[in-house]
Amino acid sequence: MARIELNVDLNRVEGDLSVQVTLEDGVVVEARTAGTMYRGFEQILLGRAPRDAMVITPRVCGICGTAHLYAAVLALEQIWGTPVPPNATRIRNLCLFAEGLQNDLRQTFLFFTPDFCHPRYAQHPLHDAMMRAFEPFKGEVYRETLAMTRRVLEIVAHFGGQWPHSSYMLPGGVVTPPDTRRLIACRAALDELQRWYEQRVVGARLEDWLALDSADAYFAWLEQPVPASSALGLMTRFLRSQGLHRLGIGTPHMLSFGVGCDPERWGPSQDAHLMRSGFLDGDSGAVEPLDTAQIAEHVRHSWFRPYEGGRHPYEGETVPDYQPGSDRYSWAKAPRYGDRVVQTGPLAELLIGGDALLRDLHAREGAGAWLRQFARVRRVAYELQHARRMLDELGAALHEPHFIAPVPGSEVDGQGCGLVMAARGALGHWVRLRDGVVEKYQIITPTAWNASPRDSAGVPGHWEASLVGLEVADADDPIEIGHLIRSHDPCLVCTVHFAQAGAHAGAGRRLVVGA
Amino acid sequence: MTGLARRQVLCFGNELHGDDGFGPAVGRALAGLGLPAGWELHQLGTRGLDALALLQDCEAALLVDAEAPAGQPGRLRERRADELGSEASLVGHGMGLGFVLQALRAMPGRPGVLRILTAEMTEVRSFQLALSPAVAGSVDPAARQLGRWMQEAAHA
After folding, report:
1. Does residue A138 surpass a pLDDT of 90?
2. How far is A3 from chain B (nearest CA, A)?
3. Among residues A420, A396, A405, which one has the least CA distance to residue A178?
4. Residue A501 is nearest to which of B83, B92, B126, comparing CB atoms?
């Protein structure tokens, strides 16, 4: 039996990630995903004025800063019981959806599909079509994605002044009112993106595409030439031809914090979302109401000061304790729901939210790498729809307030959490204030759930589990591992809390000359 | 975030990593000298793909960054965009300035004038706040060079 240990460094992922896999006779028998960078945002916030989180936490991530801002502001509003005018929630949602659109399209066509142009697939029947669409810097879909995703981010710039790292939300609302000029500009950006998505990405009108509600209907539809030759059609046909609909399943349990906040039903006494939150029990198939008391973080295999078992984020701590040479191997913690390993992301969001097509595909085949990536592209349709609804409602309520100053005396000590569905899934900020400053701040990112290391019981995280059983044809060029990991939309920047010395000491470099 | 600044100097680099702080240092020197009317200065740090928005549809863009060590520390050079490859490293998501310039070539709306000034690093050192003497000595000459380029761009 040939046993090989591989260290795989992946480019085109967000942040610093290393995957170690053990191959036996060409099959992955064990995997470890390591976050290789410590960041320490939680400690930066300790002792600071609560509103500093509006400036600091959007800098956790260069992709989903709006989601961090949103989570941070919701946490403070929960502690202070601050009412939020519907228009503020509409603007927050609109920007969150714009950021999600950017991520879902960039992840798919700048990070994921370039692997289809690998020389190994030169004999594949779809090779020529895939090169025309997906080849980096040359393929049509690749180039159009660069342009379209830049355009859609203008929506955040209209209300936030800049993207990324914007700070335009604050307890009680947002800083910029809606006006006709902004709404028209945002609508134009969405219109352009929707046309492109319909024509290029899915090959159907948005309503017709969303109306597909079963696996049979979808596969019959995919036989038609227009959908078959669309970007999603190509992606689906190629991934399924490689068996990736049956690979990379990982944990069956899923988590969603709910899509956006419902503008008319959000505030101190209400917490409705545009699509429901919940926990999908992968064993029973039932969707249960979200119970945040079940959330706990373990550090048994992470480079943090040790504690026993798991801790709820209100009781948590993030104290770095680098222990090289031990069995600890990551700067990511291991969050668990109860004692269960869960995954989160667009697939979890839409399965829990009730998308009929995904539910049927999931029931038939499970949640393989193809379905995960497919769900990300499908979510674009929902994001477009939700964003339009926000614009319509803003247009009908132009003169309503976008900010209501918190009542004097309401900014009390206490604890609260802000939970949002970010581009990559469930994001939570748990905050405790004492004597008017931040006493505790714990962030659990989507990638912390997905890329978690082993927990106190030694149970591997979701990515780690999803790699086991994968056949790797060429250990020197394990492209299969790349497909699977990328289908999870990895972002270790958010998750890990210093760049390594030694081999990676050149981490600050960006220019490679003459390459 | 769209190309409102028609003429701009864009400085890239991470001051936390020794000589990689060359771009930001040149930005400060240039700010001290003052820019001609109509020019804007942007300190972009480690910004990646979102810097593309600044580069598209502008009249002139002058870029400043540090370059990998190659035996002549502090050497200033003008580089063509097509000399700069994509990043091999994970940092900046593998989508740093080299990626941005490649993306710019693949898209419409290239700047009318695009010039890139680099200084060669003495060595790559993480988490060191100061420039090496050789690179520090190139900061003022670089700022003056950019001043000349801005004048040339005005007459282009």
Report:
1. yes
2. 28
3. A396
4. B126
Nearest CA in chain B to A144: B107
Distance from CA of A99 to the nearest CA of B (A): 12
Q: How many CB atoms lie within 10 A of CB A242?
A: 17
**Interface size, chain A vs chain B, as Cβ–Cβ contacts under 8 Å:** 127
Q: Which residues of A touch B93 (CB under 8 A)?
A: 12-15, 62, 493
Q: Which of B89, B91, B102 sits opposite A137 (nearest CB)?
A: B102
Chain A residues with a Cβ under 8 Å from any Cβ in chain B? 9-17, 62, 106, 110, 137-138, 142-143, 146-147, 150, 153-154, 157, 162-164, 493, 498-499, 501, 504-515
Q: What is the pLDDT of residues A175-192, one digit of tens each?
A: 999 999 999 999 999 999
| Strand ranges inside A213-320, DSSP E | 253-256, 266-267, 270-271, 278-280, 287-288, 295-298, 310-311
Q: What is the pLDDT of residues B33-88, one digit of tens each?
A: 999 999 999 998 887 777 888 888 889 999 999 988 889 999 999 988 877 765 54
User: Do the chains contact at B67 and A513, CB–CB below 8 Å?
Assistant: yes
Residue found under tokens 């009112």: A177
Residue A513 with chain B: CB contacts under 8 Å: 67-68, 79, 83-85, 118
Cα(B64)–Cα(B119) distance, integer angstroms: 8
Measured CA to CA, the distance from residue A103 to residue A105 in angstroms comes to 5
| pLDDT tens by residue, A429-466 | 999 999 999 999 999 999 899 999 999 999 999 999 99
Residues on chain A touching B80 (C-beta within 8 angstroms) = none
Structure-derived torsion over alpha carbons of residues A504, A506, A512, A515, reported in degrees to the nearest 10: -40
Q: What is the tens place of the pLDDT at every residue in A45-99?
A: 999 999 999 999 998 887 789 999 999 999 999 999 999 999 999 999 999 999 9
Picking from B107, B149, B142, B132, the residue whose alpha carbon sits closest to that of residue B8 is B149
How far is C-alpha A94 from the geometric centre of its chain's CA atoms? 17
Distance CA A164, CA B93 (A): 15
CATH code at A450? 1.10.645.10
What is the CB-side half-sphere exposure of residue A196 using CA atoms within 13 A? 23
A286 within 8 A of A252, measured Cβ to Cβ = no
Whether residue B90 and residue A13 make contact (CB cut-off 8 A), yes or no, is yes
CB atoms within 10 A of CB A412: 10
Q: What is the largest CA-CA distance in chain A?
A: 72
Please give the tally of structural domains in chain A. 1
CA atoms within 13 A of residue B128's CA, in its CB half-sphere: 16
Q: Which residue of A has its CA nearest to B2?
A: A154
Stated pTM of the model: 0.88
Question: Residue ranges of the alpha helices (H) in A306-368?
Answer: 346-353, 356-365
Rg over alpha carbons for chain B, rounded to the nearest Å, is 15
Residue A314 domain boundaries? 2-513
Tell me which chain B residues have a C-beta less than 8 angstroms from the C-beta of A498.
126-127
Q: How many CB atoms lie within 10 A of CB A67?
A: 30
